[in-house]
Write a structure and sequence with these properties.
By secondary structure, the chain is of the alpha+beta class. It has one domain: 2,3-Dihydroxybiphenyl 1,2-Dioxygenase, domain 1 (Roll). It has an eight-stranded mixed sheet with strand order 2-3-4-1-13-16-15-14. An eight-stranded mixed sheet has the order 6-7-8-5-9-12-11-10, covered by helices on one side. The termini are far apart.
Length: 317
């Protein structure tokens, strides 16, 4: 049976100030901080996860925020634009809200869909698009009502240094279907209801530079651990060198860099973020894997304090 991903599992990016990162994604966009932990490979750096109420696959954006980080340059070999989906009729609310917080935006369109385009506090490119598909959010925070709230990812725009090769991987390795093409972009669709639309500019991009305001990697969904092992074999048989399966506490992961320069991850839907804390308490406490617990006090002392707080309009994050 042909393997096909349901779409985006999560997107991970770099940021600067942890508090400004929380203010933007929780305070302005109204997402839930579902997990506060550390970069397991660099424990002096937070790893913050924002998503829907449960941190469902297809809703999760994660950050490595570190005060003083250099700003990156968006370009080839990266996710260029992260697209969020909101309910039909919600774009007007978001246009007013973003302007009220002093965020510049532009209106654009792609494949007949109207988009609000703006940047986060570090310059990461974000879009909002209205679609019927996907369940409405059940999380309300900071003046964002559930009927207007972000559902999760609509998809992403991949900036490739070799667009033909990236598109080949989307179709032949990940099992997405090409559904449209115009003068500038090709559009691909995965099986899921959200995080399922991927656009690729037809023109190859110049290499970007990693740093705050850029995406580190995009992760694709595997429905369970058995399928995840099949994905590892599939990636290897397709000419790439996937990593070993890595336990990331809330999902298992493999990584490989596709020929267009973008770091791809494939992550399991289970076990999810309620693995180590109650669902009602997600994101309220710094959670550490067992091997870091003996040095918790040292780790906490090295991290800037953060809080999820409601922001007043006119207050930039």
């Amino acid at each position: 049976m042909k393997l096909q991903t349901a779409g985006i599992h999560h997107i991970t990016a770099f940021a600067g100030s942890p508090q400004e990162n929380v203010d933007f994604y929780a305070g302005i966009l109204g997402l839930r901080l579902v997990k506060r932990t550390i970069n397991f490979d660099a424990p002096e750096v937070y790893h913050l996860y924002f998503g829907d109420e449960n941190g469902s696959p297809g809703t999760i954006i994660t950050f490595f925020p570190f005060t003083g980080s250099r700003r990156g340059k968006i370009g080839g070999g990266q996710v260029g634009i992260t697209t969020y989906v909101v309910p039909p009729g919600a774009l007007g609310f978001w246009e007013e809200r973003l302007k009220a917080f002093g965020i510049s935006l532009t209106k654009t369109s792609r494949f007949g869909e109207e988009l609000l385009h703006f940047r986060d506090n570090e310059g990461l490119q974000i879009e909002l698009v209205e679609r019927e598909a996907g369940a409405n959010s059940t999380w309300s925070f900071g003046g964002v009502p559930v009927e207007k709230a972000i559902k999760g990812f609509g998809g992403a725009v991949l900036y490739s240094v070799d667009a033909k090769q990236t598109m080949r991987v989307l179709e032949e390795v990940l099992g997405l279907s090409k559904v449209a093409e115009d003068e500038f972009y090709a559009r691909f669709q995965a099986l899921g209801e959200i995080g399922n639309i991927i656009d690729v500019p037809l023109k190859d991009m110049e290499w970007g530079i990693g740093g705050a305001g850029t995406v580190h990697h995009i992760a694709w969904r595997a429905k369970d651990f058995d399928e995840h092992e099949q994905w590892q074999q599939r990636v290897g048989q397709s000419g790439f060198s996937p990593t070993q399966i890595i336990d990331r506490q809330y999902f298992n992961a493999i990584y490989f860099r596709e020929a267009g320069g973008i770091l791809f991850e494939i992550a399991t839907d289970p076990p999810g973020f309620a693995r180590d804390e109650e669902a009602e308490m997600l994101g309220e406490k710094l959670m550490l894997p067992s091997w870091f617990e003996p040095v918790r006090s040292q780790i906490e002392a090295n991290l800037d304090p953060i809080e999820v707080r409601e922001l007043e309009e006119g207050m930039k994050s």
